Amino acid sequence: MSNNEKGQAKAEQAKGKLKETAGRAVGNERLTAEGRAEQAKGDARQAKEKIKDVFKH
What we know:
By secondary structure, the chain is mostly helical. It has one domain. Helices cover about 90% and strands about 0% of the residues. It is built from two helices and no strands. α1 runs antiparallel to α2. The mean pLDDT is about 90.
C-alpha cells in the first residue's frame, strides 16, 4: 500500500470518527451520519489499496 494512500485512508477514518463523536455530543444526526460515511470511505480506500498490493506480489 502506498504510504500516501494509506495516510489518506487513516486521515479520513480519523476525521470521520471525530465528526461522528461531535455529532453525537451535540445531538446532530446529520453530522453523525457524515462521520460514519467518511469512516466507510476511508475503510474502502484502505481495502482497495490492500487488494492492489495482493495483485502486485
